[in-house]
Design a protein that fits this description.
homodimer; about 210 residues; alpha/beta; Arc Repressor Mutant, subunit A; Rossmann fold; 7-stranded mixed β-sheet; 3-stranded antiparallel β-sheet; about 45% helix; about 20% strand
Amino acid sequence: MAKTVSPLRTSKATIDRLPLYFRTLRLAQDEGIDIISSEELGRRLGITPEQIRKDLASFGQFGKKGVGYYVNELKRNVGEILGLNRHWNIAIVGIGHLGVALANYQNFVSLGFNLVALFDQDPNVIGQRVNHVKVEDSKQLARIVEERHIQIGIIAVPAAFAQEVADELVAAGLRGIWNFAPVKLEVPASVRLVNEDLSIGLSSLSYHLTHAEG
Amino acid sequence: MAKTVSPLRTSKATIDRLPLYFRTLRLAQDEGIDIISSEELGRRLGITPEQIRKDLASFGQFGKKGVGYYVNELKRNVGEILGLNRHWNIAIVGIGHLGVALANYQNFVSLGFNLVALFDQDPNVIGQRVNHVKVEDSKQLARIVEERHIQIGIIAVPAAFAQEVADELVAAGLRGIWNFAPVKLEVPASVRLVNEDLSIGLSSLSYHLTHAEG
């Protein structure tokens, strides 16, 4: 079925769209849809059907001409390309309101991510449990990251402390950082950094409301 | 200087990139950069310089050949195109950990959004203050939305309640909804819905870690 994935031949724009495909397919699966056309996928994603056929073709043969894409199969394959079948171990640093909200985020599990550690430096927070995981002292970070084979760290501390935490995560050997602090972090090229910037969604909404007014 | 914006002639892909341009220009401004080339913008955004020149040209004449873009001027213009100079009034519904984290989000103000109301249905939460704004009873939503000219509603309730809240916001006359609940909402075409799906950032990280392993 699917050919070997060759990310080198795939454009960054296509790779950036893969999580969107995965989410849309997950929602279609929840709705009980078995087969979906590139037209319907395009409508849901705001992308042309031509672009969708081109994107998915670069990863292999997932569709059937004149029928559409099998939702379950395509979702499984896109999930594999995204590496979601690997069960990454993740830790959250900073257990304030944002950290607690993230720790309770149900979709982590369904996406195959294991939340295995929570860190904070506040003695009043250390020892508490969030979503069955105990909050541990940030001073133990390096030891625990190694012991529990943590690959991804989520930064949920205030902006002023984010770079310091990023440095600690890098020193501890983490390979990916998901940053929620509204600040630009410096990390070595070997560490993958994804910034979650809430201003993006809000700016997009602002644009569409502005131009809908005419 | 900038020509009249004509969103009808602008592709959805270009519009989706505008908040990214704005964020990158904001960070460059924070770093004290006065002039930025399309090459440097491209490097920071992971987009080709050709695409950047094409995107920005569709909105007007912001650059100077052989010099680059003036960061402050370009940021102000992109901000205007995004409607960020309009001071939208926003409300958050659901003051759990996520709602509190959002209410404390500093960038709202710097982006020109005014947080004017917080709603919850829990009597233990109603009356509390978060970031100087008092939490009010969700039953008062329709009245307060009208009185305070609220245009954008943020849904931070659990998935099971999100559609109900969306219906109330629509009935109250809101024009934009920013949804953090991991569920697909149905709203009329006249209301703009932006979904903040945390699985996107994490999936993207997973992809890059998977394919960096080789």
